[in-house]
Amino acid sequence: MAVSVTLPALGESVTEGTVTRWLKAEGERVEADEPLLEVSTDKVDTEIPAPAAGVLSSIKVAEDETVEVGAELAVIDDGSGAPAETAAPAAEAAPAAEAQPEPEPAPAPQAEAPRQEAAPAPSGGGAEGTPVTLPALGESVTEGTVTRWLKEVGESVETDEPLLEVSTDKVDTEIPSPAAGTLLEILVGEDETAEVGAKLAVIGAAGQAPAAPMTASLA
After folding, report:
1. Whole-angstrom distance, CA of residue 134 vs CA of residue 120
2. Which residue from 61, 55, 58, 57 is spatially nearest to 38, judged by alpha carbons?
3. How far apart are CA 201 and CA 192, in angstroms?
């Protein structure tokens, strides 16, 4: 799956930023939260971390170019794990269907079996989801305090939609959502302080529910 690297809001009045240096080249492997590029604004010079682990497949904005907040800077291909998991049940379903091609009623129950096996797979992935991490908001900034959550657990969010407000000793800014989906979990509450790179929340696929509905179904 391709993950977009976008220019986050680096201050309340900051509307654009200039790419000063790419720390990775196209085709290179990057880890989640690893510094990917350096950006300069009229208020702060900072590094933008990779939102996910994978391969830097495309750089959209070259060095010394200026773009607006929310613009796509690059694309990271992190889909190596997803196809592998989906291919496994498909491979198992194929021989099962070929083993008994003659009887017509047999494929029907076999078709239901993979669906039941596929159900827990999304729920497991939803529990992990896409992490929302605290980006580097300045060269000497090592931590930030969550001042306000703009979304609650269970609410849907869009990519680059403001998710929470963070305060540091240099700047107060909004942290955008790295992906579209549902806010499954908030890991750092308001007025709590977290280090740069710390996981603040988890975004799951649209329509997935947080932990509360799971306990209700068990009851």
Report:
1. 30
2. 61
3. 13
Residue 9: per-residue pLDDT: 84
CATH topology match: 1-79 vs 129-219: yes
Q: Which residue has the tokens 């900072």?
A: 46
Strand pairing category for 156-157 and 130-133: unpaired
The CB density around residue 30, as the number of other CB atoms within 10 Å, is 22
Classify domain 129-219 at the CATH class level: mainly beta
Q: Which of 129, 153, 166, 150 is nearest to 51 (CA)?
A: 129
Q: Rounded to whole angstroms, what are the CA distances from 108 to 93, 97, 103? A: 12, 10, 10
State how far the alpha carbon of 179 is from the alpha carbons of 5, 30, 89, 97, 164, in Å: 10, 18, 27, 37, 14
Per-residue pLDDT of the chain (219 residues; tens, 9 = 90+): 789 899 998 877 888 999 999 999 999 999 989 999 999 988 788 899 999 899 999 999 999 999 999 999 999 997 655 443 333 444 444 444 455 555 555 555 454 444 444 444 443 344 568 899 988 877 778 899 999 999 999 998 888 889 999 988 878 888 888 888 899 999 999 999 999 889 999 998 876 666 554 334 344
DSSP single-letter state for residue 50: P
Listed by start position, the domains of the chain span 1-79, 88-118, 129-219
Q: What is the DSSP string of 124-167?
A: HHHHH-EEEE----STT--EEEEEEESS-TT-EE-TT-EEEEEE
- Could you tell me which CATH class the domain 1-79 is placed in? mainly beta
